[in-house]
Write a structure and sequence with these properties.
Helices cover about 30% and strands about 25% of the residues. It has 14 helices and 23 strands. Strands 12, 15, 18, 19, 22 and 23 form a 6-stranded antiparallel sheet that branches. A 5-stranded parallel sheet has the order 3-2-1-4-5, sandwiched between helices. The structure holds adenosine monophosphate and glycine.
């Protein structure tokens, strides 16, 4: 059967999804708020529309006779795009709004873990009253993470003892005008991501990835959507054991069991602490950048996953190439606080050499591609080791140059990876 697949979203993650479907013989249609030039080149048609408007998405899906849809970002999930596509008879690989609350409502997420006895949940309290939250900060014995309950693009969390003092934390709570926040135990350790492909009560997981949220080298500066990420040629990362990975997978399995018929990607973000993996959060979609580590090494046809999900079957056993990956984002100078748009992007998919190039928020004009105020593009190296993959990514960044751009050169370099290993050794008293 000829599949017409509608891809929703226009970032680097969705460019990676488009690439994963490029050779599977589908007709790919894409819609997003921004025209992603990489996706547009792969797709049969690209429509610019508001992806949080379910009617607009369904209209376009019907126009192109979509037989399947893949939803990349969280905002359309929260807006109920999967629900409305299903009402229109189009299977969407992505959870319904109710199930996406595992990401879109952090207070719900924590209560859900607690009620279902899902392991790896830190101590937490939820607050509607911001003065009561400030009192809790004063009384709590230890540092807390302050988390707005709703979506903030990964930029709303403030960790006391790391980014802010208790006084600054309280000021943030009072001044930010959030309706509801979660205060939870500050977890200490190394972060990693495990993404699961979920459908019909079954799941398959991808190798672990480590993202880098901080804007500047050495993990300094404000939180971002993610500046880059790496994975190893094995399922675990150099600072963790296979048992740590398996423990994270069992937390994801317990979560999928407790969710009623979840479908799509379930992304677990973990902190590897001295007591093993704890959950920082769940997302209801691929990570961005993590999708760019995972999909290039997925050897199973992604279309097979989508059709099995739609047809009520188990997720097929997934094969991943035994290769390490390093992904580095180039972002506009000043990102995320004062980004300056308008720099011309000097690298393209051909001049990136051995690296893969994924476009994110860029603006394609007659004379070239320009940055906007969000992450611009990412380069990904694939090789037998993290070190070699990093060198491949760096050679593409060299072609891009630094005019108007910022990137973290430290991601995936031996020094930074070794620091992660040393950190976990220290926590484990080794
Ligand atoms: P999130 O938006 O939940 O992914 O949080 C953004 C970042 O805040 C995470 O990547 C962590 O670095 C940090 N964070 C979130 N929750 C905690 C926690 N309980 N303890 C320590 N750091 C945290
Ligand atoms: N890389 C973090 C995220 O996608 O939320």
């Amino acid at each position: 059967m000829q599949e017409n697949v509608l891809l929703i979203g226009g970032g680097g993650r969705e460019h990676a999804i488009a690439r994963a479907l490029e050779d599977s013989g589908v007709d790919l249609y894409a819609c997003a708020g921004n025209r992603n030039p990489g996706i547009a080149r792969i797709a049969t048609d690209f429509e610019t529309l508001e992806t949080t408007d379910p009617d607009a998405v369904v209209d376009y899906a019907e126009d192109v006779d979509a037989t399947l849809a893949v939803i990349g970002p969280e905002a359309p999930l929260e807006a109920g795009v999967a629900d409305e596509l299903e009402d229109a008879g189009i299977y969407a690989f992505g959870p319904k709004a109710e199930d996406a609350r595992i990401e879109t409502d952090k207070a719900f997420q924590r209560r859900f873990m607690e009620e279902n006895d899902i392991p790896g949940c830190p101590d937490f309290e939820t607050f509607d009253d911001m003065e009561a939250a400030c009192e809790f900060v004063d009384e709590y014995d230890g540092d807390l993470a302050i988390k707005p309950a709703g979506l903030t693009g990964g930029k709303g969390v403030k960790v006391i003892g790391d980014q802010v003092t208790p006084e600054e934390g309280k000021e943030y709570i009072r001044e930010s005008d959030y309706d509801r926040i979660v205060l939870e135990e500050r977890l200490i350790g190394e972060e990693f991501t495990v993404q699961a492909f979920v459908a019909n009560g079954t799941l398959e997981t991808a190798p672990a990835v480590q993202d880098h949220k901080r804007a500047y080298e050495g993990d300094e500066g404000p939180n971002t959507g993610g500046m880059g990420s790496y994975s190893d040629a094995t399922t675990a990362l150099p600072f963790m054991t296979e048992d740590d990975y398996d423990e994270a997978v069992s937390i994801i399995e317990a979560t999928v069991d407790a969710l009623d018929d979840y479908r799509g990607i379930l992304y677990g973000q973990f902190m590897l602490t001295s007591e093993g993996p704890k959950v920082i959060e769940f997302n209801a979609r691929f990570g961005d950048p993590e999708a760019m580590n995972t999909l290039p090494v997925l050897e199973t046809d992604f279309l097979e996953v989508l059709t099995a999900a739609r047809d009520g079957e188990s997720v097929p056993e997934l094969e991943f190439a035994d290769q390490a990956t390093v992904c580095k984002y180039a972002v506009p100078e000043g990102y995320p606080t004062d980004p300056e748009a308008g720099a011309k992007v000097q690298v393209d998919e051909e001049s990136a050499g051995d690296a893969l190039l994924y476009y994110a928020s860029v603006d394609e004009r007659d004379d070239g591609i320009y940055t906007t105020t969000s992450r611009s593009f990412a380069v990904v190296g694939l090789a037998d080791s993290i070190t070699e993959a990093e060198e491949i990514a760096e050679s593409a960044l060299e072609v891009a140059g630094e005019e108007g751009l910022h990137m973290r050169h430290d991601i995936g370099k031996p020094d930074l990876v070794q620091q992660r290993i040393d950190h976990v050794d220290e926590l484990r008293g080794e």
